[in-house]
């Protein structure tokens, strides 16, 4: 009974924060509401006894991605009028996509209510993290490795696209420094001593 009330509380906060993400006037507030949505989604994952997914959601999305979004949004000077120009033009497509998502969630809930796909009882000592690792590194090992290679290529491409040679930057050439001779750098000048 307590878990049910906690679920409804977290679900209400998740829906409200999700709504505030898209309706917030200030982009920084929208990002902060998205962080709140991720935290409440992680709480729902914990209720479902998926601890690994919950902590991954917090570490990856809140700890890395959302902090990056927050810095980018705070550094950019966003013109809110230009952002809102396409709202009414994109509203029909958004309503269609939202309706499809509501239908999908309705089918899932209907299957759960009418007994289709009843979950199996969990044996004692079951670890969802261990099971996730076993499935990921046995059945989906090649897909996991392909995803890793695609991410590596994306990282290299992002670095190559953003790396530009700056004219005002100064750099040292270690090979030229090693080849230098004393005669090239130091000049001895003989001077007459000064008399007082």
Describe the overall structure:
With 196 residues, this protein is mainly α. The protein is elongated. The protein has three domains: 1-82, NADH-ubiquinone/plastoquinone oxidoreductase chain 6, subunit NuoJ (Four Helix Bundle (Hemerythrin (Met), subunit A), Up-down Bundle), CATH 1.20.120.1200; 86-119; 123-157. Helix content is 72%, strand content 0%. It has helices at 2-23, 27-47, 51-75, 80-84, 87-113, 128-138, 141-162, 174-178, 182-185. The protein has nine helices and no strands. The longest helix has 27 residues, at 87-113.
Question: Helical segment tally?
Answer: 9
| CATH architecture designation of the largest domain | Up-down Bundle
| Number of individual domains | 3
Tell me the total number of β-strands: 0
- Measure the end-to-end span: 102 Å
Write a concise synopsis of the structure shown.
The chain has 196 residues and is mostly helical. The protein has nine helices and no strands.
Which terms would index this structure?
mainly alpha; single chain; 196 residues; 9 helices; Four Helix Bundle (Hemerythrin (Met), subunit A); 3 domains
């Amino acid at each position: 009974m307590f878990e049910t009330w906690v679920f409804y509380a977290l679900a209400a906060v998740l829906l409200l924060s999700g709504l505030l993400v898209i309706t917030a006037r200030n982009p920084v507030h929208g990002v902060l509401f998205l962080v709140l949505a991720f935290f409440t989604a992680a709480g729902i994952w914990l209720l479902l006894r998926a601890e690994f997914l919950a902590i991954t959601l917090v570490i990856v999305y809140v700890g890395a991605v959302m902090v990056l979004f927050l810095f980018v949004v705070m550094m950019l000077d966003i013109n809110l009028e230009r952002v809102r120009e396409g709202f009414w033009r994109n509203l029909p497509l958004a309503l269609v996509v939202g309706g499809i998502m509501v239908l999908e969630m309705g089918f899932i809930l209907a299957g759960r209510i009418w007994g289709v796909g009843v979950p199996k009882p969990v044996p004692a000592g079951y670890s969802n993290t261990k099971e996730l690792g076993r499935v990921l590194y046995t059945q989906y090992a090649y897909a996991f490795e392909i995803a890793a290679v695609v991410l590596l290529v994306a990282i290299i491409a992002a670095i190559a696209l953003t790396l530009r040679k700056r004219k005002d930057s100064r750099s040292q050439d270690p090979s030229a420094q090693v080849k230098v001779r004393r005669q090239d750098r130091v000049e001895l000048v003989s001077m007459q001593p000064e008399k007082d």
